Amino acid sequence: MRKEYDFSDARPNPYLKKLRKQVSIRIDVDTIEYFKKIAQTTGVTYQNLINLYLSDCAARGKKVRIAGIRS
User: How much is the pTM?
Assistant: First the structure.
């Protein structure tokens, strides 16, 4: 390992806006199965599909329907 490195030609990380954070959430089994079914036909992982759906909801400012939610 070098004592010093030259970062004078460094450029900003192009993926900085796409960073992700791992979280633990509880999702109904039937919801997971729904996204897993879609994943099989699209070739996209179910986790990425859930992320895409949530990102789309956030971008559109979609409001949450509270009626009928169980804990």
Answer: 0.67
- What are the domain boundaries of the chain? 24-60
Measure CA of the first residue to CA of the last residue in the chain; give whole Å: 53
* CA 27/CA 32 separation, integer angstroms: 7
Q: How far apart are CA 46 and CA 37, in angstroms?
A: 8
List CB contacts of 36: < 8 A, sequence separation 6 or more.
46
Residue 17 has pLDDT above 90, yes or no: no
Residue, of 68 and 16, whose pLDDT is higher: 16
Q: Give the number of other Cβ atoms within 10 Å of residue 44's Cβ.
A: 14
Give the residue among 10, 50, 19, 18 at the shortest CA–CA distance from 33: 50
- Report d(CA 68, CA 71) in Å as an integer: 10
